[in-house]
Amino acid sequence: MIFEGLLSPQARDYLKRLGRFLPEVEKKKVKWLLLGMILTAGLETTNVGLILPFISYVADPSSIDRFGGLKLVIAKLGLNGEAQVLALMAGVLLVFVIIKNLTVFVFLRFSLNFQFVNAANFSTRLLEKYLFANFLFHLDTHSSDLVANLKDRTPLVFSRSIGQMMLLISEILITAGICGFLLIMRPWATLAGLVVIGGLGTLIYRPLRVRARLYGKLRIEAEQQLYRWFYQGLHGIKEAKIYDAEEYFVSRTRKNYHRLSDIQIFEMLMGQAPRLFLEGLTVGGLMLIIMVLVLQGGGSSEIFPTLALFGAAAFRLVPATNRILAAMLSLKMASQALVTVTDSLDQALAAGQVKTNRIADQSARYEGTIEIEALCFTYPQAENPALNQVNLSIGRFESVGIIGPSGSGKSTLLNLLLGLLTPSAGRIKVGGKDIQENLGRWQSEIGFVPQNIYLIDDSIRANVAYGIEDGIIEDQRIWEALQMAQLDQFVKDLPHGLDTPVGEMGDKLSGGQRQRIGIARALYHNPEVLVFDEATSALDQDTEREITKSIEALAHKKTIIIVAHRLSTIENCDRVFRFERGLMVEEQVNKIHK
Ligand SMILES: Nc1ncnc2c1ncn2[C@@H]1O[C@H](COP(=O)(O)OP(=O)(O)O)[C@@H](O)[C@H]1O
Ligand SMILES: [Mg+2]
């Protein structure tokens, strides 16, 4: 009855999802794990069995007659006298316990290794799927949730689901082995004990099972909220301080942390409480057995071995039963984490995995005029298109500005141009070739500077040569890029030069310096096309003018596309396109260039 769950469609779904956490090679190891479990279960049972002749002999040396094999061995070894026999028995028992525990240790090491190495591998694979997932996936998810999946929920699935399932199987085997042995030795007393313990176990398990499932769900929610409040509070530290909102984040964190700790307390109690209850039950049971035996007029030679047998069995059975109960509840608790992680993996896969090939194939270069033809794009679930039938062309090394109110589709156009989004209709051609034909190649021709440069917590060098391994960064090119971004003098004056760490989130740099690092980053790869999305909007006017000058210095060496708010930013562009509600409504040739 307690195992009904193992056969339900729910349980099948559970196992199927669990299977996705292990690659095929690792699944093959499962049979070794099972073998190890059977072996340890056998050893545990034998251990209980070995205690019986020992205790019987202590209580009554003549009981040796009941163990024919043992008597034969004693005769063969020529042992005589109780002391010698006892020494033999104690020696065998001791050696056996040592071997058994060594085996248990080796197996434990193996199964923990299985668990943790696979958890690390899975989490890494999951990150890979997230990072390679189509950009649309990331528009739709909260990065803090993804972090929780990678860092908390995946290990949880491994320790709670896979680990506890292995524990469950091995404890069931041990319990079955010991109970089988007891049934042979003392059938009635065992049967009575089984009915009582089984019945009470089910009684404890049933109501807890429902709560375990519920708490598993609540745990996910509480964690999700916690992460969000952590992130939002710390990432928006300036706003938090200015609007005096620190306490707002603190109180939300407190509330959710308390929800989480209630759940954790429940989990811990479920892991421990059954044992406390079962221990009481066992003491009571043993007393009962003694009383029955005494009342039946049994002598100490009868009572003593029986008591020892049940005592030794209980010594192992109580923790086993406790673990079985705790493991079953744990599986229930982890089920929501399992579902959340696998669903999120499915979403990342469903969004499409985009792996572009950047091998420099000179013949495949994208050079020449950028032609945007009848381009349309509608975000998933959006009612109106963000871009509608846009036609425009940008000549090689021309610089163009794109303006329009916010929400008019400027960023969407850039995302399409960058190949992050795929057109719903229409196409973008460069030099007559659709960019979708070889997206990787096209992307290697573009440099992109967003409104907020994301700095990694590393040196200036690593931030300019973004994503390139240390050994193959060319400092010469870094300096060239920094020079074009007009940041070279600043970096030269730093005591550590290119090795200067930019600090967490780059708070040690001014806004203008951050943007210049972004420009240097875009230039490091020596692209054909440079794209700026409101790259100077967050800057003060003087800094903006400075940066705009740096950009203008690149004019007619690169194709430049600038999305801007302020007209001053684009006053020197060759042409300007105005967007409104997803439409290109006006094209003007700048006066200066007429
Ligand atoms: N991830 C998204 N999901 C749904 N709609 C979006 C998304 N991003 C932008 N939009 C919508 O698309 C339109 C164009 O947005 P966007 O290109 O960001 O405008 P702009 O950069 O000109 O301010 C807006 O109406 C905006 O609400
Ligand atoms: Mg925008």
UniProtKB/TrEMBL annotation:
Record-linked InterPro entries: AAA+_ATPase, ABC1_TM_dom, ABC1_TM_sf, ABC_transporter-like_ATP-bd, ABC_transporter-like_CS, P-loop_NTPase, Type_1_exporter
Q: Where in the cell is it found?
A: Cell membrane
Q: Which superkingdom heads the taxonomic lineage of this protein's source?
A: Bacteria
A Pfam family name for this chain? ABC_tran
Cross-referenced Gene3D superfamilies, in alphabetical order?
ABC transporter type 1, transmembrane domain (1.20.1560.10), P-loop containing nucleotide triphosphate hydrolases (3.40.50.300)
The ABC transporter domain is annotated at 370-592
**This protein's GO CC annotations:** plasma membrane
Identify the main location: membrane
Q: Sorted alphabetically, which PROSITE patterns does this protein's record hold?
A: ABC_TM1F, ABC_TRANSPORTER_1, ABC_TRANSPORTER_2
* Gene Ontology terms, MF aspect: ABC-type transporter activity; ATP binding; ATP hydrolysis activity; ATPase-coupled lipid transmembrane transporter activity
List all membrane-crossing ranges. 32-55, 85-108, 165-185, 191-208, 276-297
State the UniProt keywords alphabetically: ATP-binding, Cell membrane, Membrane, Nucleotide-binding, Transmembrane, Transmembrane helix, Transport
SMART domains under this entry? Answer: AAA
How the protein sits in the membrane? Answer: Multi-pass membrane protein
Ranges for domain ABC transmembrane type-1? 32-333
**What is the protein named?**
ABC transporter ATP-binding protein
Origin species, per record, is Candidatus Lambdaproteobacteria bacterium RIFOXYD2_FULL_50_16
